[in-house]
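Quick one, T. Sequence first:
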Amino acid sequence: MRARGKLRLGVNIDHVATVRNARGSAYPEPLRAALLAQEAGADGITAHLREDRRHIRDADIEALATGLRVPLNFEMAATAEMQALALRHRPHAVCLVPEKREERTTEGGLDVAGDEARLCDYIAPLREAGCRVSMFIGHDPRQIEASARIGAAVVELHTGHYCDLHSEGRFAERDAELAGLRAGAVLAASLGLEVHAGHGLSFETVGPIAAFPQVMELNIGHFLIAEAIFVGLPAAIAEMRRLMDLSRAA
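Structure tokens:
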């Protein structure tokens, strides 16, 4: 199955909030970064409101929900508190992610297959409210098939392990993980799911993922915010867009 249209880039602005919160100040503002990303060509903005509010805060979600022209992808754990917030703000998309308080960043995909009945009930009101519901998962066929059964519109494939293997120079394992992601994208598309991917992607690692014809959107955050320290956010986004488009065209 071939992708239709341009490969979209969602920019995650969580770590602008990380810098702000490190000093307990009011700056840098996540909304300002989101608006800058929007003007630089981002197709959407992603923000993860964690239970412990370690970066994005409730007021940030409210500001993003009302201040953006591009879609907001609201990442959250599948809790009653987060469901209520999503139903209040009604973002374009809700992406359910696993969350552990002690982790530095999201370590793996959601276990949809192991929590299928609850998640089916959980996402029903979100779907009714008009939110596109996405499951952030690994490429295990069981998780992809369960995501389709519960009525998710989208799966976002976790690319973090692939990126870690690349940075560690474990290239044979990296290539095997890439093959698993490719097979997962094919399976998800065959089941009628829209396929996204993200986590840990950089200029070095984005190309092979962007080349998957089934992938419609990449969500990239930490690397872009880090690169922006040196070249600015518009330039970092422009280069990521160039590499994505180059790989997709090839």
